[in-house]
Amino acid sequence: MRKSNNWLLILCINMFLLASFSLAIAQDGKMPITTSSDEARNSYLHGLNLTDKLRFQEARQFFENAVKADPNFALAYLNLGFTLPSAKEFFETFDKARALTDQISEGERLWILGVEAGNNGRPLVQREYYLRMVKLYPNDERAHNLLGNYYFGQQKYETAIEQYEEAKKINPEFSQIYNQMGYAYRFLNRYGKAETAFKKYVELIPDDPNPYDSYAELLMKMGQFEKSIENYRKALEVNPNFAASHSGIATNFNFLGRHDEARQQLKVFYDGALNDGQRRAAHFATAVSYMDQGNSDMALAELDKQYALADKINDPTNKAGDLGTMGTILLFIGKPDEALLKFKQAREEVVNSDRSDEIKRNARLGYLFNEARVAVAQKKFDTAKAKQVEYAMGAEANNNRFQIWASHQIAGIIALAEGEYDKAISEFQKANPQNTYNLYRIGLAYKGKGDKVNAHKWFETVANYNQLNSLNYSFVRTQAQKLVASK
To answer: Is there a contact between 365 and 391 (Cβ–Cβ < 8 Å)?
Structure first.
């Protein structure tokens, strides 16, 4: 996942998390599945089994078979969308599911409407749909998992774990919940519980790649890079095309300072890619590797290649995301005018597309965020403050957690640039706690105050954060290490 605070991240998080679960066949209080065809139902259930294990490429054909057998199969269209390699294809397929919501059960309808709310940047609306679903189907482990994943995406990990535990009571053999619990405990820095969950995950489905991949990510977080690589390679032994494991190995090599080996691994990934979605992922991970090494020119060149794949099919969502990422790099390397041009192009890609009005409104709001960042770089602080206020009002109106975090991030950036260090610290501590660039900025603010002890603490946190395949982290990891070493 690309780490950023704009609406595109929220959409990507929503798609990633929702891609990992589905609903059960109607029995004993489970959510029903509405289809007129036994053949379609059987194909759908086979696809569900595969998506539970994050084997989306394999699941795709079964969902395609399901909608072929029953062209009015709403949940099959929904799940098919999650297996497709581009945002454009996802939205086209999701629209088919959305159009069928008056022909299906209330639970199915709530799920689809919840996805729509997430797409439109309305997380509280999404939560209400999923709460209603769990109330309707309290004995459906997948419904609890769905609500848990919503809380996970909002970084409310304790609450997410509560839902996973409910799912576990219903079906202790449901493998997906152990994966999600492992990540939730990892984000809470409770590594022992995370390891226990991941080992149970491996025990339940030892012949699948994702359990080894997930455990490998925990080992990377703990700084055990070589052991992490070993477990990622176990995942690739099961499935050589398991995309996340290629990126994981490359990230470990980046942290070990072996960037050439990282990019060799990503070339293997690219050469074996099954679709343009995987090719885009390889380009992005390669860009992160170059940025981690300090080579912004090559990083931008990789993003140009990534953009070309989206442009080939005129995918406005992915094109906008790529342009925004380019703009962020240009801003980081001190080219605010060029960055602003990319941000404008990103906004226009969405505004001129067939996306929903709410998505377009969020694109305009995201542009205010980017305008404010550019204004700070240009030392136009009055302009930056005005844009920040306007953005904050929009974020509050949406009641969107990530957007509210982003409004505090901008306020912190402005305060840091103006030397208001206490205000900067306060604002960054109200921003996204997983944005390592913000954690680094807190260190800079303490450094500006002359508080070497706290500055060192925050720089050390960043240096050892070990975040997977993150562009924000690539901006600051090496510099944080240098500042820690210079104590």
So the answer is: yes
- The answer to whether 72 touches 36, Cβ cutoff 8 Å, is yes
- Per-residue pLDDT at 14 exceeds 60: no
Q: Could you please report the per-residue DSSP string of 313-376?
A: TT-HHHHHHHHHHHHHHHHHTT-HHHHHHHHHHHHHHHHTSSS-HHHHHHHHHHHHHHHHHHHH
* Residues ≥6 apart with Cβ < 8 Å to 183: 152, 194, 214
415: left (phi over 0), alpha (psi -120 to 50) or beta: alpha
Place of tokens 């969950």: 197
DSSP 8-state symbol, 44 = H
pLDDT score, position 421: 98
Residue 437, token pair as written in the block: 């660039």
The single residue listed with the structure tokens 């022992």 is: 192
Give, to the nearest 10 degrees, the angle between helix 7-18 and helix 357-377.
Answer: 130
DSSP string for residues in 69-131: H-TT-HHHHHHHHHHSSSHHHHHHHHHHHHTTGGGS-HHHHHHHHHHHHHHTT-HHHHHHHHH
All residues at 6 or more sequence positions from 25 whose CB lies less than 8 Å from its CB, including other chains = 32, 33, 41, 45
Separation between Cα atoms, residue 383 and residue 362, nearest integer Å: 20
Cβ-count burial 49-81 (b if 16+ within 10 Å, e if not): ebbbbbbbbbbbebbbbbbebbebbbbbbbbbb
- DSSP one-letter code for 466: -
Phi, psi dihedral angles at 459 (to 5 degrees): -65, -35
The mean pLDDT value of the chain amounts to 93
- Residue among 462, 467, 471 at smallest CA distance from 285: 471
The arithmetic mean of pLDDT across residues 138-147, rounded, is 94
CA distance 107 to 143: 9
Q: What is the Rg, in whole angstroms, of the alpha carbon atoms belonging to the chain?
A: 22
The distance from CA 330 to its chain's CA centroid, rounded to whole angstroms, is 22
